[in-house]
Specification:
The chain has about 280 residues and is an all-alpha fold.
């Protein structure tokens, strides 16, 4: 007896047929697998470890805490909007295809082309905190995302290996770890999404446990706990040189705007799963 397709898959195939497309890709990922993609790419642990000092120096606790709330609030609207569109147009490719469908026919091809390149080329900005604000159209794009994050992991592994050992984290060794990681990523991705979905589920577990451990450790072992006023209203400008920060060179609002980018960087990746279709 033939297995019956889920109602949602039947509806998606019917909708694709109405749009003039036949479904070629096998949709065998569950809701948990799709959640795992976005959750892994957002990677709160990665954002915390790479940007914590950036946030403390660019606005301080006040900008970090309030910025996180503000960015999360507005990002939720973007996520809800994308969820509405992907439920109506359940295709692979994501935003560039939506642009072609939603734009007027006479400009649909151009809108799709611009959107597709914008999505690819903007990711380098979102994943490069030191260059945030000037790289939204950087031509390294998607390639730089993967290599940049992997290099961060190589540095982390190299430094971790020095704890309690005689290992020395030289530039050459770090580059060797970096190369090995890139090769491993290429090999894993060559086997397709069937392996990746299990890695995503593992990532969900590791991230959940890791974040929980961070929170518990900070609350239980921090030598002092600051007041709510300190957390939400303390502004600090550690930018600039010779003690003259950009709050003086430009304005405190400018520093706060730059500091908010910490939160934006950390939750980058919310629409990742929808691009898989």
């Amino acid at each position: 007896m033939e297995n019956q397709l889920p109602d949602t898959q039947v509806r998606d195939e019917t909708k694709l047929a109405e749009l003039g497309y036949r479904q070629d890709l096998n949709r065998d990922w569950s809701m948990l697998h799709n959640f795992g993609v976005s959750f892994s790419i957002i990677s709160v642990i990665t954002g915390l470890t790479t940007l914590f000092s950036y946030g403390l120096n660019t606005g301080g606790p006040g900008v970090m805490s309030v910025g996180w709330i503000v960015v999360s609030f507005f990002t939720m609207f973007v996520a809800l909007g994308m969820a509405e569109i992907v439920s109506a147009i359940p295709t692979s490719g994501g935003p560039y295809f939506w642009a072609a469908i939603l734009a007027p026919p006479n400009v649909s091809a151009f809108a799709s082309w611009v959107t597709g390149w914008y999505v690819q080329l903007s990711v380098f900005l979102q994943r490069s905190p030191s260059l945030t604000g000037c790289n939204r159209f950087n031509l390294l794009g998607q390639v730089a995302v993967t290599t940049g994050i992997t290099f961060g992991m190589a540095n982390l592994l190299s430094v971790t290996a020095t704890v309690g050992t005689s290992y020395e984290a030289t530039a050459g060794r770090t580059l060797g770890i970096y190369a090995a990681l890139l090769v491993s990523h290429g090999v894993i991705n060559s086997f397709g999404v069937h392996i990746l979905r299990y890695l995503n589920n593992t990532s969900i577990l590791l991230h959940s446990v890791g974040i929980s451990c961070f929170c518990i450790a900070v609350l239980a072992k921090a030598p002092t706990h600051q007041s709510a006023k300190f957390v939400f209203s303390t502004f600090y400008d550690g930018t600039g040189i010779d003690g003259i920060g950009w709050s003086i060179r430009a304005s405190p609002a400018y520093v706060a705007a730059c500091g908010v980018l910490m939160s934006q960087y950390t939750i980058t990746g919310t629409p990742s799963s929808l691009k898989l279709g």
